[in-house]
Fold these 2 entries.
Entry 1:
Amino acid sequence: MSMKVGQVVKSAAGHDKGELLVIAGFENEKVLVCDGKHRKLNKPKCKNPRHLEETEMFLQKDSMATDKKLRKTLNKIANPGG
């Protein structure tokens, strides 16, 4: 599976290990990811793709419209029961 913008990924290394993130773009050989809380949409984190675990989930553009919507959507994915 190749990574695409809007795909939900899990951080496998770094300070954000275990966190769910969404791919916001690509820069050179790096992946730009954000979570709407620590990494906002206007300042995504640049990560090595080897430090990310792909999931089969993708977010629609309206879920990535604002940081608040992104946080809520990722929270629902991480905690489906509550």
Entry 2:
Amino acid sequence: MRMKKGIRCHDVSAKGLENIVKRCRELDIEYVQLVLDKSIEDFEYGKFSKEYAENIKEKLGDMKIAVFGSYVNLSASKPE
């Protein structure tokens, strides 16, 4: 059994979710902690929806979110 690796997306030295995923694949990282406002440059408060989540899932491909975190209320219109 091999150990599986994970990392916080906002610690990857890449900008934009596609580039973060690409860099994680280069490093053989399978799991990420995704904190939207820290990892996605164009994240807009109050705009989180099922479609937005599906878009993120599509960009991640087979990479898995081990921890989905947020330091904000996703339904708020601006940071609290």
